[in-house]
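User: Predict Haloacid dehalogenase-like hydrolase domain-containing 5's structure from this.
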Amino acid sequence: QPPAFGFLFDVDGVLVRGSQPVPAARRAFQRLADGSGRLRVPVVFLTNAGNCLRSAKARELSQALGLQVSPEQVILSHSPLQLFTQFHQKCMLVAGQGPVEENAHNLGFKHVVTIEALRKAYPLLDMVDQTRRPKELPPPTTGFPTIEGVILFGEPVRWETSLQLIIDVLLSNGNPGAELQGVPYPHLPILACNMDLLWMAEAKMPRFGHGTFLLCLENIYKKVTGRELKYEALIGKPSPVTYSYAEYLIKQQAEKQGWKAPIRRLYAVGDNPMSDVYGANLYNSYLRSAQQSQAQAGVKRSPQAASPQTEVYLELRKDCNNSVESCESILVCTGVYCHNTDVPKKTEACTTETVFHGHRDFCFDPSLVEASYIVQDVDDAVQLAFKKENWS
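Assistant:
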């Protein structure tokens, strides 16, 4: 019997902690795969990681789970940027770490400038680290392209350098070597990937994520200019565009396997109430409004109404056959959420987050951080979904 459901798995805190697999992960995938190691149900790995290539993340997951994961099954925080074609011909400043240039080119961006290239072209801009200050006044820079937008892939290594240079680019309208003539507003378009304030690695406590870097950037910009930093798009979980893209890939997988039954239900398994649960629940509300022929109304209710994001979302909804009816959130206790081993019986009793860790542009709605189900680990999550689907 072909499956009528699919899984969206978060990675950090659900399947791995840093470089170490979570013990329950292999057990879960032994259930999901047949005797020859092929998945019996469509699966997408939906991670807010973005400082690597899709192919590298697929190799890492293959090793951790003991089965072959293809790059087409992996959605990194920046993967939906390939749909934002209106920016692909512009000269974009890219910030983050890892292969940022290669990632940008793979997504379709033709002209990119890294923070490091910008720093080398204008060495007087990066002044916090005294050991990196030029000993002599460098000659004026000529021929450097005007920057037309900014892509924030993920948290950088030297925060002070990236914060300074991004602010310089915004204040100078893409010409950071020029003298300031006044603050341009609206500023250049910013596309930001991954809003996670915190994430779980091998340490006992959560670590700063890209959301923490965005918080710094937003507050510095406002303090300097008196105005709000605006985003053209915020992607990665909990953005509905990311979940819509995941639905699209789930359906592609089902078609490729020759499974004729339409995919009706998605189970999103995560460890972070503020990204995984919030995102799945928000997307579930979009699906409900789409079923009532109100997809447009659903988009208008988005917590952030960035127009390119809205266009991409509507385009994806048009491409999908709209068979998916629900996206249920399953919260596991092996990562950011919950560190005790006693799983609460009721979801309501378990929403202990009183501080909103979500991004500034997403309104806090307590119901959106309440998971549909709470289980101990990913193996329990798979068993729960199988039981609901009467799937052996």
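Residues 80-135+144-234 form a domain with the Rossmann fold fold (CATH 3.40.50.1000).
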